[in-house]
């Protein structure tokens, strides 16, 4: 959206490029879009933000924090570092985000994946049943249509609504925002469609390193799923995954968390590695199914990071596709 609006934007931090690259060339950009982890937020001192966007709070990193409340307190520092004249962009349907915004006050814009919201309705962007997003400022409305195939599921609509609010605060025109919604290509390792072959769609969601992110991915699926789970467990509860209303054709378990996860799922199968999981998933999946790598765990038991894990999955899937094409 920012690029469509003619701005030279840096994207990095906990996502993509390291912040050190921005520090070496701060004059080379008009705006910096920075993703900050709770770890990074713990130690910020002088940082100030024109836009402080908090998408949601999911239980995570409970091997580091004594409680979800302690984790939320670290995340809340984002809002406390707003610049004077800055704005908070918050999820109206997330109780922790909403409570923080109301308590801290200041300029706030809201977003919601749902059409009706007491907070986002009059002062934010709301997803609609037809897939559009309506943004309201005072008595005027703007209508946006996220048409990119990469924006799948209700969480995609929610993320688009948040991005709209951020971009509009930075004076990106509605026309440029709409172009951004159309041209968005998605991000690697985040429900990334790797392959479609034989009626089976393969998704790389290696960035899903907690159970709540797995649930979000499952909710975006429209048919039966072969789910690949596992890695280094971080102590968060798995209740959301177990409650997902999706047909799990099979759960394939990899990594150190396999023994923990096996009793939770009927007919779960330990396969050990990503390569073995891809081979087994190909045997199990039927036309109309999705094979979803959404581990719900950190990658450090077998990989250096989630990117390396996702790349290993993509390499195995593409090798399998090439092998099938040659036979």
From TrEMBL:
Residues 23-166 form the Mur ligase central domain. Pfam families: Mur_ligase_C, Mur_ligase_M. It is found in: Cytoplasm. Keywords: ATP-binding, Cytoplasm, Ligase, Nucleotide-binding. Signal peptide: none annotated. Pathway: Cell wall biogenesis; peptidoglycan biosynthesis. The keyword Transferase does not apply. GO terms for molecular function: ATP binding; UDP-N-acetylmuramoylalanine-D-glutamate ligase activity. GO terms for cellular component: cytoplasm. GO terms for biological process: cell division; regulation of cell shape. It comes from the Eukaryota. Gene3D superfamilies: Mur ligase, C-terminal domain, Mur-like, catalytic domain. InterPro entries: Mur-like_cat_sf, Mur_ligase_C, Mur_ligase_C_dom_sf, Mur_ligase_cen, MurD. Residues 189-295 form the Mur ligase C-terminal domain. This is Uncharacterized protein. It comes from Chondrus crispus.
């Amino acid at each position: 959206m920012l690029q469509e609006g003619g701005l030279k934007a840096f994207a990095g931090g906990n996502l993509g490029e390291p912040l050190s690259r921005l520090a070496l060339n701060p004059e080379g950009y008009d705006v910096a879009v920075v993703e900050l982890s709770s770890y990074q937020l713990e130690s910020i001192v002088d940082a100030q933000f024109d836009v402080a966007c908090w998408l949601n709070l999911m239980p995570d990193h409970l091997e580091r924090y004594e409680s979800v409340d302690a984790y939320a307190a670290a995340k809340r520092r984002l809002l406390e570092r707003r610049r004077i004249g800055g704005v908070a962009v918050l999820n109206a349907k997330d109780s922790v985000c909403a409570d923080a915004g109301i308590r801290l006050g200041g300029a706030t814009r809201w977003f919601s994946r749902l059409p009706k919201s007491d907070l986002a309705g009059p002062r934010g962007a709301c997803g609609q049943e037809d897939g559009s997003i309506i943004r309201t400022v005072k008595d005027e409305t703007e209508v946006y249509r996220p048409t990119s195939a990469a924006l799948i599921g209700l969480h995609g609509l929610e993320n688009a609504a948040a991005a709209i609010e951020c971009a509009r605060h930075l004076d990106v025109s509605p026309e440029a925002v709409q172009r951004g919604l159309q041209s968005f290509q998605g991000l690697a390792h985040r429900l990334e469609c790797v392959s479609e072959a034989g009626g089976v769609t393969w998704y790389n969601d290696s960035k899903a390193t907690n159970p709540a992110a797995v649930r979000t991915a499952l909710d975006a699926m429209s048919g039966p799923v072969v789910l690949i789970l596992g890695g280094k467990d971080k102590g968060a509860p798995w209740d959301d995954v177990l409650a997902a209303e999706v047909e799990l054709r099979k759960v394939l378990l990899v990594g150190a968390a396999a023994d923990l996860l096996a009793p939770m799922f009927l007919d779960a199968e330990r396969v050990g590695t990503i390569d073995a999981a891809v081979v087994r998933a190909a045997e199990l999946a039927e036309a109309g199914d999705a094979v979803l790598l959404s581990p719900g765990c950190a990658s450090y038991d077998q990989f250096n990071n989630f990117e390396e894990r996702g790349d290993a999955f993509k390499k195995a899937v593409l090798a399998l596709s090439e092998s099938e094409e040659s036979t």
